[in-house]
Amino acid sequence: MADFPSPPAPVPTGLDGFLLWPELLTLEQQKQIVDHVRQAVRLAPLYRPVTPGGRPFSVRMSNWGPLGWVSDKNGYRYQPLHPQTNQPWPPLPALLLDIWRATANHPRLPDACLINFYDAEARMGLHQDKDEADFSAPVLSISLGDSAIFRYAPAGDGPSRTVKLSSGDVCVLGGKARLARHGIDRILDGTSQLLPRGGRINLTMRVAQ
Ligand code: SIN
Ligand code: FE2
Predict the structure, then answer these.
(1) Which CATH class is domain 25-206?
(2) How many whole angstroms separate alpha carbon 182 and alpha carbon 152?
């Protein structure tokens, strides 16, 4: 697989450090990544984590990488094993690392990639990604399948705004936006044919340690 080409200029988002490339991934690349996700979840099944307060997430999750993000009654953290199978997470696919190299503008490679699966009713509340050891590395996110309304706001005070994330979109939260608050208001059911049974996959690569 050839290296991923360098991307065009990102589109304006109104938030310094929040970079968005709509439809950066070709349909072929999207299908390849979905195949990788299918292989991953055969080994490391999607499961529904609970918040530290005991509330189930509406999103189902798995991970790639030496480390995976988990949540349970003991809190949020990264760990090397799937909490249900107690097996290591599968390794990050090379294509995802190529996308990171082309867009993240950071010397280190990610050691964790969260796989989020949203059905039509799933959402994710506004939060910050702050379980990582070093915030100088960005968070890179890939959207596949049905579109979603992504809400984002500065790390500190300031109003939130929304943008639609569609299949093949890539975005980066880095620099001043590394600790931006963000979440998913809702899924726009039936907006993509990529996943035969619908829903949305979000892949979030991070340097966790
Ligand atoms: C996340 O913040 O982990 C997911 C964001 C998204 O689904 O786009
Ligand atoms: Fe997040």
Answers:
(1) mainly beta
(2) 4
